[in-house]
Structure formats: C-alpha cells, structure tokens
Amino acid sequence: MNIDDAIAVSEAPPSEAGRLETIATQFIQLVLSNINREYPHSGKVWLNSEADIKSPREVHPAFYGCLDWHSAVHGHWLLVRLARCFPEASFQTSVRTALDGSLTPVNLQQEATYLKQHPLFECPYGWAWLLQLATELREWSDPQATVWLSALEPLEATVASHFQHWLQNLEQPNRTGVHANTAFALGLAFDWTRTSGHQALADLIHDQSRRFYRQDRDYPFWLEPLGYDFISPSLSEADLMRRLLRPAAFANWLTDFLPSSALEQREWQLVSAKNPENYQQAHFRGLHLSRAWMLEGLCSGLPSDDPRIEYLNAKAAQYWQFTRADITDEHYASSHWVGTFAVYLLTKRGLHH
C-alpha cells in the first residue's frame, strides 16, 4: 500500500488495514455488478428527433450503467481508487478486466464526441467526477493506468474546456445540496488542476470562488438539510475555500462564515433514510458521508492549533458512525453510488498533507 494520500489505508495497523480491505471488496463487488447494468436508467437527454432515441449503451459505451452517467463515472473512479490503495488485493484481476472493457479509445472517443455535441451534459457534477477519474489515473504509477489515461485524455480535455467556458460565464453560484452545487464541483476540479497542471482553470476557479464566496457571512446553517440533499451547501463552500486560502486566512473566513457559536449551539441533524429503497431518501446516506469528509477537510485547512479542530473531527466521526452500517446496502437506490462517497471519505482522497 504505497499511495501517499490514502492515509487511512497506508498508515493503518494490520488489523485495521484488513478491515478496510474487506470493506473495499464489498464496494468493488457492488460496482462491478452495476457498471454494466443498463437498466433501470435515469438520464437527462436532449432529443431533436426520433433518431436521437437510443439505448444508454449505444449513446454512452463507457458510462451507461449505475443508473446514470455521473454515477457510472464515479463508479469507475472507485475501482481505480481501490485498486491503487490495495495493490495486493484479490479483486485486482476483476477490476482491471472491467476497466479494460470500459476505458477503451473507441468508447471514450464516442463519449468525448457526445459531450462536444451536448456541451452542458452533466454540468458540473459529472464533469467534476470525470476529472477526479483522470486525477486518479494520473497519480497511479501503473502501466495499465497509463494506457487508460491515454484513452481518457480526449474526454478529459473536452470536459476541461467545457468547465472553463461554463465557469467564465457563470454569474451566480448554485447553492443547493444536490448535483448542480457549484462549490462541490469546483473543489473536485481544483484538485484535478493540481495534478494536471492546468493553470488556466486553477486560476479561474480561484478568482470565481473568491467572487462568489469570499464575502459570505453568517451562513444560516440551521436550514440544512434542504430537501433531499446528499451534500451540505455550507460545508461544500467551506471545503472549497480551505483549498484556496492559507490556513490563517481560511480560519478568519470560517469564523465569519460559520461562527463557532452557531456551530456549537446547533445540533447537527442526523437524518435517517426511513425508506432506504426510495432513491431520494437514499441521498441522506451520502449527505452524512460527504459532511464527514468535508469536516475533515476543514480541519486540514485550519492552523494546527485551531481550537475548532477537535470539535469538527468529533462531528465527522459522528456522521461516519451513524452511516457506516448502511453503506453496503445492496438496493440499487444506494448501491449505484453511495460506495463512492464512502471510499472518498475512508481513503482521505480530498486531503492535502
């Protein structure tokens, strides 16, 4: 386990590493059963004529499973991430076979062509996860990963171009807790720029984020969650800003944005999916996982002696404990996507040490 940023795996004691590998194997099995599952399918499709009515597999030969395009993309991200973190695991062969079948030059060129023809398809959530997939491949010193990355590069370039054009023309950020949230996508995309060296997009994210969020004050945290959120609007924004500001500046910004009194006086709501087979209620499982990783992200961006760190880490642990028993639920409402959020948290993907 020689991946520097998978801290929870690489620095775990043997017993804990074994437990994590068992969980990883469960996620792998769920994703492998879903990435080639074409139906049910939920996707936004623009139809100009009957000629545009095609099956998901015909339109998206690489990413047609997992209910929708973005879930298929981050399902592939999960496979790559766990293959990196557990290089000796028994699932290596099955994962590599699956990736070989999906990430071919022909498949990914067709995906790139589709996005060129539909420049707002999966904006911005699906784009962000596509760039995360590229990040994972770029950071993996593995011969097969190099081949897959080469095949992915036309789609990666298309998404980066779309991202830049969209962000340049964006007047107001989306502050909801679902796919359209701006801050969530910008955080994942900014991490990609650190690996890819795409300075133009990095600068644009930095400038637009400061314009959108730098002056935010006294966020009404008590409003959350909003509807069927799977991400926290406030924590997504804060998790983005900790990537862009130096620790002291971030600490000051966070004090203004989420005052300690508001955080500590508000009981952070834990929301159960009372009907876990309801696709909207299943969002709450992702909400707790993403809150946990974002709180850990905030702690990583604060000065090491900041008194809020202990409290925020405790809240992150609380969210994980509340959700951990449900993360391998095999019903499709959860299985097509929740594993990605759990793996992002458990392997400390978004943290920069």
3D architecture notes:
With 353 residues, this protein is mainly alpha-helical. It has a single domain, classed as Glycosyltransferase, CATH 1.50.10. The chain is 61% helix and 0% strand. The chain contains 17 helices and no strands. The protein has helices at residues 7-10, 14-34, 56-59, 69-85, 92-102, 105-117, 125-138, 143-168, 182-196, 199-213, 233-244, 247-257, 260-265, 283-301, 308-323, 332-335, 338-346. The longest helix has 26 residues, at 143-168. It is globular and about 55 Å long. It starts with 6 loop residues before the first helix and ends in a 7-residue tail after the last helix.
Produce the secondary structure layout.
Elements: H1 7-10, H2 14-34, H3 56-59, H4 69-85, H5 92-102, H6 105-117, H7 125-138, H8 143-168, H9 182-196, H10 199-213, H11 233-244, H12 247-257, H13 260-265, H14 283-301, H15 308-323, H16 332-335, H17 338-346
Mean pLDDT: 93
Structural domains: how many? 1
Shape: globular
User: What is the number of E strands?
Assistant: 0
Radius of gyration: 19 Å
Per the CATH scheme, the topology name is Glycosyltransferase
Structural class: mainly alpha
Number of contiguous helices: 17
Q: Topology as H/E string?
A: HHHHHHHHHHHHHHHHH
CATH class: Mainly Alpha
Largest sheet, in brief, is: none
Report strand %. under 5%
Helix content: 55-70%
- Return residue spans where pLDDT drops below 50 for at least 5 consecutive residues: 1-11
In CATH, the architecture is: Alpha/alpha barrel
What is the terminal separation in angstroms? 17 Å
Pfam family, one: DUF2891
Protein name: DUF2891 domain-containing protein
